[in-house]
Amino acid sequence: MADLAAREQKAERARAEARAAGEQVAKMQQKFSSLQEELTRLYQADPESFDHNGQPLKSASEAGQIVKQIGELDDLGDLQARYEHARQIEQRVGGLRGGA
Predict the structure, then answer these.
(1) Do 76 and 83 form a contact (C-beta atoms < 8 A)?
(2) pTM over 0.85
(3) How many other CB atoms sit within 10 Å of the CB of residue 97?
(4) 74: phi > 0 → left, psi -120 to 50 → alpha, else beta; which?
(5) What are phi and psi of 56, to 5 degrees?
(6) What is the DSSP string of 16-70?
(7) C-alpha neighbours within 13 Å on the C-beta side of residue 28
């Protein structure tokens, strides 16, 4: 019985971690998309303010500040990996319940 309770507790923690990581990923993707859309809008409005790689010529410009904000975002790949890892733990621990 204590074993089952411990597994239930572990499964609940894994579910909570997966849920939190998933929410973080969604927020990050939304923030990145909105910044990228704004940067694209600025580029289309004034391409002369950007170099041949699409980077703003002036870091103090509005576009430069957006690029800075994008750079300050957490690593989306790392967040996605944390989410996937938490989901795997949740599924594994959840599957153990069926065998008890």
Answers:
(1) no
(2) no
(3) 12
(4) beta
(5) -60, 140
(6) HHHHHHHHHHHHHHHHHHHHHHHHHHHHHH-GGGB-TTS-BS-TTSHHHHHHHHH
(7) 18
Where do we find the tokens 């609940």? 12
Give CA separation, 63 vs 35, 53, 66, in Å. 10, 13, 5
Q: Tokens 């990581």 appear where?
A: 21
- Residue 75, classed as helix, strand or coil, is coil
Residues paired with residue 56 on neighbouring β-strands, in sequence order: 50
Note down pLDDT in tens along the chain; length 100 residues: 678 788 788 878 888 888 888 898 899 999 999 999 999 999 999 999 999 999 999 999 999 999 999 998 878 888 889 888 888 887 887 665 554 4
- The Cα 26–Cα 18 span in angstroms is 12
